[in-house]
Design brief:
The complex is a heterodimer of chains A (193) and B (532).
Chain A: E1 2-4, H1 6-14, E2 19-20, H2 36-46, H3 52-68, E3 75-76, E4 86-87, H4 93-111, H5 120-131, H6 148-157, H7 160-167
Antiparallel strand pairs in A: 3-4
Helix pairs in contact in A: 2-3, 2-5, 4-5
Chain B: E1 3-12, H1 16-28, E2 33-36, E3 42-43, H2 48-58, E4 74-75, H3 107-111, H4 121-135, E5 138-139, E6 155-156, H5 162-172, E7 179-180, H6 213-222, E8 226-230, E9 232-239, E10 246-253, E11 261-270, H7 273-283, E12 305-315, E13 330-332, E14 349-354, H8 373-382, E15 387-394, E16 403-411, E17 417-422, H9 427-450, E18 454-460, E19 465-468, E20 494-496, H10 511-525
Parallel strand pairs in B: 1-2, 1-11, 2-8, 4-17, 5-6, 11-20
Antiparallel strand pairs in B: 7-13, 9-10, 10-11, 12-15, 12-18, 12-19, 13-14, 14-15, 16-17
Classes of the chains: A mainly alpha (193), B alpha/beta (532).
């Protein structure tokens, strides 16, 4: 039992302490990593060219961060009006790392060169061969993607940046935006990368 | 060692209705209010941006540990949320705050079906207003004949986005008036909370623009107005010796379960939602009341109510920019306020911007993977036209046998049987279900046709949304559990407030109705205590 009196409440807030007795769920534990050069090479091949190499690499870095900060079996949101409790899937990193290794092996077997040295066309060809039919029913969630390339694409195409690019304006979904500007067509997009 | 806690008023539960009751009582009366919550306190204001980030990135619960693992109903628990924490289900609340319409309270008188409530819309109107002011509701006055209210909303409406204005023009080409659905979100600084900035994650609003009861409890605690006990489950209400008054409640401290706890109060208020309030009354059966407390009518747990949804999408002949403020929607009450009808069909009508069918995808229609520039080119082509989402909640009258009962085969760690839910439509609604859903589909088609769009993806929900009932209100003790104020017909110092007392669940979201009913109850509870 926590008996919250005014004195206790004010003292905790004055000390800048969140009155949250449940375990902190904001973790920064470093998990397994994916090969950064392989992710960058995937970005160059799979993402739109108008992002530019710098933009493609930035998405690859953000995806790498997503992987590092993933928490297997974390409690997922239980939607409003649902009795179901849900938990995050197991850590996909080992499977995805093995798939990157398979792409590298495929590059050597088929073209006699490392994946990162192949043209984008050849990298895409290898990816097409590996992802099979995944994604036929739309993007799976990133964490539930079977193949790392599908996860990478889902990660990008679910982002506000991708929405902006597709519509050619700065909608900036889920960012803090002035209410008063809502009636206006979003401003033209500046390529920020 | 036995612990005894005493207060003037003990409120069981710390959700929205409890917040309304606690705040009004302590604003207006001199009394000690104790709020007892089974779940955790979640006053983690410093963490909410990060929790939101992780919810967006990973889908993690933005309200971690907001439930008790072995405390959940069985059966057709559609519409039930697991949340048990300070703030209640409203922690996850999207902010939609429409009122019921006057017809909801007079179904028997107007349409010859169901039951009238023991209170009219007009009588509840000032309490609706008070709830909207305490929560902070931003709204647009609709046509007065469709959207009656005696005073303006406390805050100006959330501005219609470009998308929503285009959709309003499109919708009204059908000849039906649409206005914005009221929202419990700040459009100006309000009661120390921030202004909505279209973060569009209303289930966790890190700027505090969307009302949440934890803010009310925070304010009451800071002012020293209430005492809050958390992680304490009330397991039984016990009658005073030789009396029908509630003498005390038996609680269990989840952190010290072996120490008995007795909570004494002059008045007990059950504000634990449509599952846990009737559940507690049934658990409190004793020799004089073998079917449970407040249950001489045999109706505790009965008449569980809720409405169903019919949803559809329309491919529009013009472009939208999805994500400008996706939670905001248009509303019409035209179909909620019919005059005399041959067949009872009542529903609201809402329109949202949507991206369904227009979002990025990995494969084209032939199944070929879209890699490199192909994915963006494909998306741009499909984004040349937009999508509208349509949804109607239609009224479903509950059967008497739509019930919560105790499942003695499934118990929590303290040995209490868990509730089992069995939602059932009343005879009239069961007979009309197919025709109702077909009627709504037909309206969707009419709207799509009038606006040169194409309807697709129509589906009806199976379960009940915004559920309530289980302790329905009424004037007759033989056919109801509590009166219009939520006072038990059987125990003069016991009130049940909020969702359990609903006679029907209307055709729209219930938050301000629950708040208004709580405030109405508080006006009666407060009469026994001196004014401040």
């Amino acid at each position: 039992m926590l008996r919250v009196t005014r004195r206790a409440f004010v003292r905790l807030f004055a000390a800048g302490t969140a009155l949250l007795l449940v375990p902190r769920r904001i973790w920064s534990r470093v998990r397994g990593e994916l090969d950064a050069s392989m992710l960058a090479a995937l970005g160059e091949a799979l993402l739109p060219g108008e992002l530019g190499a710098e933009g493609q690499h930035q998405v690859a870095e953000e995806f790498g961060r997503w992987v590092r900060e993933y928490r297997p079996n974390a409690e997922l949101s239980h939607p409003y009006g649902s009795a179901e409790l849900r938990w995050a899937p197991e850590d996909p990193t080992p499977r995805w790392a093995a798939q990157l290794t398979a792409l590298e092996r495929g590059a050597h077997d088929r073209y006699g060169a490392p994946f990162v040295e192949l043209s984008s066309d050849r990298r895409r060809e290898l990816v097409r061969d590996q992802i099979g039919t995944e994604g036929t029913d739309g993007f799976p969630s990133v964490a539930r993607s079977r193949h790392v390339a599908v996860a990478f694409l889902a990660f990008f195409y679910e982002s506000p940046e991708a929405t902006n690019l597709a519509h050619g304006v700065a909608i900036d979904p889920m960012s803090c935006r002035d209410l008063a500007q809502a009636p206006e067509i979003p401003p033209p997009l500046e390529i920020r990368r | 060692m036995k612990r005894i806690i005493e207060s003037d008023v003990c409120i069981v539960g710390a959700g929205m209705t409890a917040a309304m009751v606690a705040e009004k009582l302590t604003d207006e009366r001199e009394l000690d209010v104790l709020v007892v919550e089974a779940g955790n306190p979640i006053f983690n204001y410093d963490d909410r941006f990060e929790l939101r980030r992780r919810w967006i990135a990973y889908g993690e619960n933005p309200w971690p540990d907001d439930h008790i693992e072995d405390q959940t109903p069985l059966g057709t628990a559609h519409g039930f949320s697991r949340t048990m924490a300070v703030g209640g289900l409203a922690l996850h609340y999207g902010g939609a705050s429409p009122r019921y319409s006057p017809e909801d309270f007079r179904l028997r008188s107007l349409y010859g079906i169901g039951d009238d409530w023991p209170i009219t819309y007009e009588e509840l109107d000032p309490f609706y207003q008070e709830a909207e002011e305490r929560m902070g509701v931003a709204g647009e006055q609709g046509p007065p004949e469709l959207d009656p209210r005696s005073k303006p909303y406390p805050m100006p409406a959330i501005p219609r986005s470009y998308n929503l204005e285009r959709l309003r023009e499109w919708g009204e080409s059908w000849g039906v008036p649409f206005w914005t659905n009221p929202q419990a979100k700040n459009t100006v600084p309000y009661r120390g909370r921030g202004v909505c900035c279209r973060l569009d994650t209303c289930n966790i609003c890190p700027v505090g623009a969307r009302y949440s009861p934890d803010y009310t409890f925070r304010d009451l605690l800071e002012k020293g107005r209430i005492e809050l006990i958390t992680r304490t489950l009330v397991r039984r209400l016990v009658l005073a010796a030789g009396s029908d008054r509630i003498g005390h409640a038996v609680g269990v401290d989840r952190d010290s379960p072996d120490d008995p706890m007795e909570i004494r109060a002059r008045t007990f208020v059950l504000a634990a939602g449509y599952v846990w309030s009737p559940h507690l009354l049934l658990l409190s059966a004793e020799s004089r009341y073998p079917e449970g407390l407040a249950n001489r009518s045999g109706l505790v747990g009965k008449y569980l109510a809720g409405h169903r949804a019919v949803t559809g999408y329309v491919d529009l002949p013009f472009a939208l920019y999805p994500g400008m403020n996706a939670h905001n929607s248009l509303l019409s009450k035209k179909f909620q306020r019919p005059g005399p009808v041959d067949r009872y069909v009542r529903h609201d009508f809402r329109i949202w911007e949507a991206s369904s069918g227009d979002e990025g995808r990995i494969r084209d229609d032939s199944g070929r993977a879209l890699l490199g520039d192909e994915g963006l080119a494909d998306w741009r082509e499909r984004a040349k036209t937009g999508t509208a989402r349509l949804r109607c909640y239609y009224d479903v009258l509950p059967a008497r046998e739509s019930a919560l009962t105790l499942d003695r085969g499934t118990r929590n760690r303290w040995g209490d049987p868990m509730p089992r839910l069995d939602f059932r439509d009343g005879e009239e609604s069961a007979a009309l279900r197919g025709a109702t859903e077909e009627r709504i589909r037909s309206l969707f088609e009419d709207l799509a046709r009038a606006g040169s769009g194409t309807l697709r993806g129509v589906r009806a929900s199976e379960g009940k949304e915004h559920p309530g009932g289980g302790c329905r209100m009424g004037d007759d003790p033989a056919s109801s559990v509590v009166d219009a104020y939520g006072r038990s017909h059987d125990h003069e110092n016991l009130f049940v407030v909020g969702a359990p007392t609903l006679v029907t669940a209307g055709c729209n979201n219930s938050a301000p109705t629950l708040g208004a009913l709580g405030l109405l109850a508080a006006s009666k509870i407060g009469e026994e205590f001196p004014a401040r």
